[in-house]
Inverse folding.
């Protein structure tokens, strides 16, 4: 571990976590110790070959205490992604900002609270829920150790929410902040919800380090739509961990929509933990400049009769980097598994970098699995077809890129969000 | 309108067209026939400007000017339209949006304003009804999942919307049943006037029962080896190409 960072983080732990003592302290302390032992992964680490964890820690990093000052700012409407009819929970510099949030008229079956609040007042409510058992990578341990703030969201059995829940993390400090939001979410039996996560920095030319962890447990027959969005062109580092446990007959839809980002690392893990559960994983990364997106997905088929469908599409321009690492594990008892994965990419520049790696580990015998990846330029025959009708080459390329992205946008089940993205994409691929 | 002079063209260094000459005037319809692999599609592609083909010798004049240095879209805007033998499927691009963009690009070239949404929709509906395509095709992805016949009718639909001065049909009749064939022929006949011209590439003379050509040319091994009137098509239908091949090979 870089010594400077080790010193910093130890001091922060002593300052912010040590005094809390209470029920959770011993667990946090254990996680922190494990983090220190593990250290920050280097380039040789199999999981960190293409994304440098250490480069994120190079400059001076700060953690701020919760303060009111930054919370009284105006937030540009664009950050709400066109979701006018949604509940918005806003976090500024990592801390819940009640005055910026819009949580009026919650449904009876919906309960939303700030994690910091619960940690302070009712730590016993949290204790049994934090350990997901789904990963003990260094940054997960670090998030565990601090439990800075975030949300606790419970959706009651049979509760169908018509409005989406938007969790927005906004950095309002020019310093290189380390923020570690944590969302602990549970869906009751046969419930249904759409949750949208997004982040932005007021100082688009400065960088912050965001180490987000979202854990979701989905009970029997429930349906989750989870949108994980990076659309602001900024200098932030984003480490997004999303751990989902799906009970029998539940349906999981995830959407990684990455339209920008100096460094975004998405780590999505889904455990299909009851028969009949299904997961649909969609991803779109449309990058330019020197943007870097590292998508890692892990689908664990732990039970029989589950299915997973995965489609991640990439468009890489300029010197951007796109990474797709999709792992599917079919455990011994997971007979009758259906698991499909596809990762097509369009490379628009010779200097763009693409690394795609599917990994299948299958221990059951009666399964249907397939995976595939492709990369290439725009299909010259399709281009010619458009040109032959009078459409100029540049416009034709944009139309085809839009069409390529459209397959993912079409899956977005929230009309307002879909509209917002269509507008954003067509602006990017403006056709005269 | 179209003059092709001693045209030689190759793909990846393999010569395919070996001296094609053709003169097509306003108001005319010419048919091009010939065995598989003789270079018919190549000729159509070279006229429309596909970049895979290299012109090694000769020239193509359209309305008096050489078009060889023009991009496919520039040729299209000048009024050259190729109905493809194998239309591409383009997922994610709706037929309506595609045609709107294309028509407005052509109109812009002609110094006209873009059509407003209402007029555009009206035009698209009028023309698609002409080739008996259902309304739903407008919002479907271009050719995706269309049957062979639907793809061909979609090509004629596009031609009807864009109203080219030179329409080239590359085996639009292949694989069509007689009803679809009539729809295609009717579409062409409706578009036909004294100011435009058509090149009809076909294998079978039956299309020429409905679209009456002024001339029929036979392409063999990259050259026109025979030209004549409509009766030439009938003779080819009856006797095949062997007698022509024998004649040529004997020379
Ligand atoms: N893109 C291409 N690459 C390689 N060979 C080609 C290509 N296009 C055409 N050819 C060859 O050129 C010849 C003429 O083909 P084509 O013009 O399609 O004939 P036709 O349309 O008369 O059947 C054939 O031998 C074909 O294999
Ligand atoms: Mg052909």
């Amino acid at each position: 571990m870089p010594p400077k960072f080790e010193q910093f983080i130890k001091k922060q732990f002593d300052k912010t976590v040590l005094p809390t003592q209470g029920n959770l302290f011993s667990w946090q302390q254990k996680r922190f110790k494990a983090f220190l032992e593990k250290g920050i992964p280097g380039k040789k680490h199999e999981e960190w070959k293409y994304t440098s964890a250490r480069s994120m820690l190079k400059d001076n990093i700060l953690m701020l205490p919760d303060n009111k000052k930054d919370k009284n700012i105006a937030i540009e409407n664009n950050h709400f992604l066109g979701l006018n009819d949604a509940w918005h929970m806003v976090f500024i510099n990592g801390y819940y900002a009640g005055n910026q949030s819009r949580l009026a008229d919650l449904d009876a079956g919906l309960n939303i609270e700030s994690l910091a609040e619960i940690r302070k007042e009712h730590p016993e409510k949290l204790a049994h829920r934090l350990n997901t058992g789904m990963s003990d990578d260094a940054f997960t341990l670090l998030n565990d150790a601090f439990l800075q703030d975030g949300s606790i969201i419970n959706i009651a059995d049979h509760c169908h929410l018509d409005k989406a829940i938007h969790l927005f993390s906004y950095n309002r400090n020019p310093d290189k902040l380390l923020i570690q939001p944590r969302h602990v979410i549970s869906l009751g039996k046969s419930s249904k919800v759409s949750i949208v996560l997004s982040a932005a920095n007021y100082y688009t030319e400065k960088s912050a380090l965001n180490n987000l962890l979202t854990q979701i447990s989905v009970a029997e027959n429930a349906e989750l739509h989870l949108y994980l969005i990076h659309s602001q062109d900024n200098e932030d580092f984003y480490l997004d961990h999303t751990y989902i446990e799906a009970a029998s007959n539940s349906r999981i839809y995830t959407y990684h929509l990455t339209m920008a980002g100096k460094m975004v690392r998405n780590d999505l893990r889904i455990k299909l933990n009851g028969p009949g559960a299904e997961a649909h994983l969609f991803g779109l990364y449309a990058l330019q400049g020197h943007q870097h997106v590292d998508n890692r997905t892990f689908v664990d088929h732990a039970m029989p009769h589950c299915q997973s469908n995965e489609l991640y599409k990439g468009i890489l321009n300029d010197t951007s980097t796109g990474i797709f690492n999709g792992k599917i594990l079919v455990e011994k008892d997971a007979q009758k598994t259906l698991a499909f994965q596809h990762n097509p990419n369009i490379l628009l520049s010779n200097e763009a970098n693409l690394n795609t790696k599917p990994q299948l580990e299958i221990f059951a015998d009666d399964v249907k699995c397939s995976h595939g990846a492709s990369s290439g330029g725009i299909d010259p025959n399709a281009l010619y077809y458009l040109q032959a009708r009078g459409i100029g080459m540049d416009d034709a390329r944009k139309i085809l890129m839009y069409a390529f992205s459209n397959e993912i946008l079409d899956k977005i089940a929230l009309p307002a969000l879909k509209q917002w993205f269509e507008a954003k994409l067509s602006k990017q691929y403006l056709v005269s | 309108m179209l003059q092709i002079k001693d045209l030689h063209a190759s793909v990846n260094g393999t010569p395919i067209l070996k001296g094609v000459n053709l003169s097509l005037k306003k108001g005319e319809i010419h048919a091009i026939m010939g065995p598989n692999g003789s270079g018919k599609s190549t000729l159509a592609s070279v006229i429309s400007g596909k970049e895979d083909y290299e012109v090694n010798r000769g020239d193509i004049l359209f309305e008096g000017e050489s078009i060889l240095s023009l991009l496919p879209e520039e040729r299209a805007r000048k009024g050259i339209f190729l109905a493809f033998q194998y239309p591409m499927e383009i997922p994610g691009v709706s037929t309506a949006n595609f045609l709107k963009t294309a028509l407005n690009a052509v109109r812009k070239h002609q110094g006209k304003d873009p059509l407003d949404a209402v007029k555009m929709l009206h035009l698209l509906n009028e023309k698609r009804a002409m080739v008996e395509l259902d309304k739903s095709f407008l919002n479907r992805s271009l050719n995706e999942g269309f049957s062979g016949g639907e793809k061909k009718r979609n090509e004629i639909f596009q031609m009807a919307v864009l109203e080219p001065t030179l329409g080239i049909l590359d085996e639009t009749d292949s694989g069509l049943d007689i009803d679809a064939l009539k729809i295609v022929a009717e579409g062409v006949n409706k578009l036909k006037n004294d100011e435009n011209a058509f090149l009809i590439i076909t294998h079978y003379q039956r299309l020429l029962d409905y679209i009456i050509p002024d001339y029929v040319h036979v392409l063999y091994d990259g050259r026109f080896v025979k030209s004549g009137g409509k009766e030439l098509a009938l003779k080819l239908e009856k006797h095949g190409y062997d007698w022509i091949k024998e004649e040529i090979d004997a020379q």
Q: What stands out?
A: Helices of chain A lie at 3-17, 25-38, 115-121, 123-127, 138-146, 380-387, 393-409, 415-428. The radius of gyration of chain A is 21 Å.
